[in-house]
Amino acid sequence: QVQLVESGGGLVQAGGSLRLSCAVSGRTFSAYTMGWFRQAPGKEREFVVAVSRSGANTIYADFVKGRFTISRDNAKNTVSLQMNSLKPEDTAVYYCAATHILGLESQPSGYPYWGQGTQVTVSS
Question: Per-residue pLDDT tens for 75-86?
Fold first, then answer.
């Protein structure tokens, strides 16, 4: 059974930075494409970024390009999301997700494994 545990959320002022981490246990971490999603109150869960199994390829949602950076460490079974220049509209619960899909998946339905989420709040 794959388990994902996010950490690093919190409260930050607009323009600030946070780094989220996701620790993955269970089967071989390098076999998973990893993604980050977020869900704000009253809104649907939306795609933020995904990284390929090797870490060589990534895909970002337009609204985070140039501000967020995903990275993974296959030796430590972790994936991280560095978030810079945060905006109040980035406020949401952020979820880490894993899938065996080979390509860079952006649909939540493509990810069978999810963490519990970590709250990110950006004040204006």
Answer: 999 999 999 999
